[in-house]
């Protein structure tokens, strides 16, 4: 598949997923893996420094940073401020993106199909089992829907992509909220589990009648049929960077404790309802300060030089004011034993 080719090229060039001496070590979310791989490739060419990033899911990233087996962990589910403090961590966002439902239906292309939140929840609850169900047909009067069984595909690993998706479903469906809830890993009522965004994309792509959810870059690179959504304002909206940006516009990073921001089901006529930021976790007092400094240099470089690459993959870069705030956080909170910053941006 195309995204695997893109990632494989980045892996070979930048050391992503394969450790080399001096590489920056990180692990976690698959949601931002396409942009981290792209950044790593360019960073290697610009600086000679590699990135060993294990794309294992947000749950795994949180476990590995807490176990101190990596320099940074990555998660699309922000840790609650009390957990960040209790763990001695610092949390900051890198980019904003969007979860998108994707389907494999004959004759259905990207943006052909539209769903609303309650209908999407009912599909994943197993209450709607056929594609020509009246609830789906009502939303898609011009689409020829097959009388075909719906095959639900979901994540099998601890996943921030799952957190964003289930957080949204919890906001639009009281039944989902009460029976399933929102987390990186839930007890799915129905469906087939696959590991990583890559696994879900691959499974949906090979299964007729399937529906799943992936970060938009995976849908884009694999030319998958993404589904439009009816948002909080009752407007039909397609997944794209502008719609993710509209969701991100509601974020008040300056007043958010430990950058704890959830971007699902935000208001606005142009807003994509299943949006979210992705986050990095590092220790306030890292055991290896040189490794921490190298990691922060990479993210500083990415903020300064990686916006075009992010936009090309339909991620939303953070505003300059937010980046400046994050770099102040680094200087004051990620420190050496003598209290001096591990890394201070120029």
Number of domains: 2
Number of helices: 14
Strand content: 15-25%
Main sheet attributes: strand count, strand direction, barrel closure: 10 strands, mixed
CATH topology of the largest domain: D-Maltodextrin-Binding Protein, domain 2
Low-confidence stretches: 1-19
The Rg value, from CA coordinates, equals: 20 Å
Mean pLDDT equals 92
Number of β-strand runs: 13
Global shape: elongated
**How would you spell out the order of helices and strands?**
HEHEHEHEEHHEHHEHEHEEEHEHHEH
CATH superfamily of the largest domain: Periplasmic binding protein-like II
Give the C-level CATH assignment of the largest domain. Answer: Alpha Beta
| Ends distance | 40 Å
Binned, the helix content reads: 40-55%
| Class by SSE composition | alpha/beta
State the CATH architecture of the largest domain: 3-Layer(aba) Sandwich
Structural summary, described in words:
The chain is built from 14 helices and 13 strands. With 346 residues, the chain is α/β, with parallel strands linked by helices. It folds into 2 domains: 2-97 and 257-262 and 272-333, D-Maltodextrin-Binding Protein, domain 2, CATH 3.40.190.10; 99-241, Periplasmic binding protein-like II (D-Maltodextrin-Binding Protein, domain 2, 3-Layer(aba) Sandwich), CATH 3.40.190.10. A hairpin with a 5-residue loop joins strand 10 (228-230) and strand 11. The longest helix is centred in the C-terminal third of the chain and has 17 residues, at 289-305. The chain is elongated and about 65 Å long. The N and C termini lie far apart (40 Å). The model is unreliable at 1-19 (pLDDT under 50).
């Amino acid at each position: 598949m195309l995204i695997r080719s893109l990632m494989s090229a980045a892996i070979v060039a930048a050391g992503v997923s394969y450790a080399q001496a001096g590489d920056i070590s990180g692990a976690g979310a698959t949601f931002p893996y396409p942009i981290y791989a792209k950044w790593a490739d360019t960073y290697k060419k610009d600086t000679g420094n590699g990135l060993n990033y294990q794309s294992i899911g947000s749950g795994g990233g949180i476990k590995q940073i807490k176990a101190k087996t990596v320099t940074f962990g990555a998660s699309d589910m922000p840790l609650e401020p009390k957990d960040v403090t209790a763990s001695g961590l610092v949390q900051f966002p890198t980019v904003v993106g969007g979860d998108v439902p994707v389907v494999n239906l004959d004759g259905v292309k990207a943006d052909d199909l539209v769903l609303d939140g309650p209908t999407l929840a009912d599909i994943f609850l197993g209450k709607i089992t056929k594609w020509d169900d009246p609830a789906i047909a009502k939303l898609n009067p011009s689409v020829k829907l097959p009388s075909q069984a719906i095959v639900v595909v979901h994540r099998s690993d601890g996943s921030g992509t799952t957190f964003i998706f289930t957080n949204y479903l919890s906001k639009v469906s009281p039944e989902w909220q009460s029976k399933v809830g929102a987390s990186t890993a839930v007890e799915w009522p129905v469906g087939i589990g696959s590991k990583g965004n890559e696994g879900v994309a691959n499974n949906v792509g090979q299964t007729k009648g399937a529906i799943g959810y992936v970060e938009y870059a995976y849908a884009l690179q694999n030319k998958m049929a993404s589904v439009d959504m009816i948002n909080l304002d009752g407007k039909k909206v397609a997944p794209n960077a502008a719609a993710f940006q509209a969701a991100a516009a509601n974020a008040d990073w300056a007043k958010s404790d430990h950058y704890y921001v959830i971007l699902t089901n935000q208001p606005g006529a142009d807003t994509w309802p299943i949006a979210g930021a992705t986050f990095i976790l590092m220790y306030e007092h890292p055991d290896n300060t040189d490794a921490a400094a190298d990691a922060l240099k990479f993210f500083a470089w990415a903020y300064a030089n990686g916006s075009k690459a992010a936009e090309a993959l339909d991620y939303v870069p953070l505003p300059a004011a937010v980046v400046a705030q994050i770099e102040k956080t680094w200087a004051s909170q990620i420190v050496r034993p003598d209290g001096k910053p591990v890394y201070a941006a120029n």
